[in-house]
């Protein structure tokens, strides 16, 4: 079971919880807080470290993607905390290679590579009251998806009502360039791993349970993640 860690809008899901987790309920969620409908600015640092990506390397990894349907600009990596740059790390787990593990307490997403290694990405995660943990899987994938705010979000944030019939894909769309939609037993949970165009959110809790990566990181993860991939969300 996915464990709802504070979302009052909860309903049942299926699946096997990780050892020690309590059974929980959820059935729907609103996607982002109102501020995430706009774009913000980054703050943090960006120098080379012995165990991290150098500034020069980061500028290449997070450079512009002009061939996308909606060209993606470069990330200003001098304003991103270097600990959130993509990198390969040691990560011991019994999960199979390809599994995605979300660590909301530390704002990281891991893709298990095998041999005790994983690719680690900086992330944004659910804010207080919308945190959850448990097992799911990627039920479908989408590029530049249309985003439709749930009714619950519109009640909390009336400004989202203008998108009640759907917000077309684009750089301002909360789902961004790529989306992994999380399912259990054939049922869409309404939770996603998505691409954010707002790098200021990386390393913070701002969503209603979804997980966001920088667009360049999300495209990297998306391209290596087939449908049916297991996703484990750890307790925050």
From TrEMBL:
<dbReference type="InterPro" id="IPR050979">
    <property type="entry name" value="LD-transpeptidase"/>
</dbReference>
<dbReference type="Pfam" id="PF03734">
    <property type="entry name" value="YkuD"/>
</dbReference>
<keyword id="KW-0378">Hydrolase</keyword>
<dbReference type="InterPro" id="IPR005490">
    <property type="entry name" value="LD_TPept_cat_dom"/>
</dbReference>
<keyword id="KW-0328">Glycosyltransferase</keyword>
<dbReference type="InterPro" id="IPR038063">
    <property type="entry name" value="Transpep_catalytic_dom"/>
</dbReference>
<keyword id="KW-0961">Cell wall biogenesis/degradation</keyword>
<keyword id="KW-0133">Cell shape</keyword>
<dbReference type="InterPro" id="IPR006311">
    <property type="entry name" value="TAT_signal"/>
</dbReference>
<feature type="domain" description="L,D-TPase catalytic">
    <location>
        <begin position="98"/>
        <end position="234"/>
    </location>
</feature>
<keyword id="KW-0573">Peptidoglycan synthesis</keyword>
<keyword id="KW-0808">Transferase</keyword>
<comment type="pathway">
    <text>Cell wall biogenesis; peptidoglycan biosynthesis.</text>
</comment>
<protein>
    <submittedName>
        <fullName>L,D-transpeptidase</fullName>
    </submittedName>
</protein>
<comment type="similarity">
    <text>Belongs to the YkuD family.</text>
</comment>
